[in-house]
Write a structure and sequence with these properties.
It is a single chain. 35% of the residues lie in helices and 15% in strands. The protein is globular. It folds into two domains: 115 residues, Rossmann fold, CATH 3.40.50.620; 105 residues, HUPs (Rossmann fold), CATH 3.40.50. The longest helix has 16 residues.
Amino acid sequence: MGPVTRFAPAPTGWLHLGHVVNALHVWGIARERGGRVILRIEDHDRTRCRAEYADAIVEDLDWLGFVPDSIAPRQSERGERYAAALDRLHAAGLAYVCDCSRRDIAMDSPDRFGEETRYPGRCRSRGLAPEASMARRVRMDEGTESFIDERLGAQADSPAEQCGDFLIRDRLGNWTYQFAVAVDDFDQGVDLVIRGEDLRASTARQIRLGRLIGRIAPPDFYHHPLITHPDGTKLSKSAGDTSIRELRRAGRTADEVLLLARQGS
């Protein structure tokens, strides 16, 4: 039986060529191995996600010929499940209330260009009451998570050194990407994660988090190259990079769009 993988865009903008590169890898590897593709709309961030983007993503995928084997519930529909996973972490003493602002964190961990800000642990031992803040963090104790990336080879990172205790729910009550993805991959039986190499650094913390919420074995990982601008920067929805909508309006065919993505990856 082949692997279960997923295509999981966030509806914070229109589908663009970078997404198509990912879709080519996801569907290509799944079909080659006799696997299944789940379409999962990752709309956990209620402040940035929009229904019109989510609907357009589904329509553009269909136009391009990417047909999922199943469609997962949207993350905005899974609040009760995420709350149950958080309760499990609280019961095990692994999650805690955090009222830190960005300014509080910056006082102990100043931003360094090109580096991820590491949470300094300010609230870890404060024992704040639940009503102090909606934000919750998960403990990332010392220790390395090792894994084999199917493209990049042996990898190892320490979540505690990378990022420290990271948010799993923010001050507005939004579930975070790291948390929602780990819970969803566990629940949906995803055993092969195929994504861009810009997300490789998230792997160790997601492996750790999956184990903390009850996952016995982590998925396998394949981090593919990104399509980039000539200066090396990756395509971005927020930067208004070429969207599939714009290419369609310009008269491009689906085959032409797929060729552009293949040439750029």
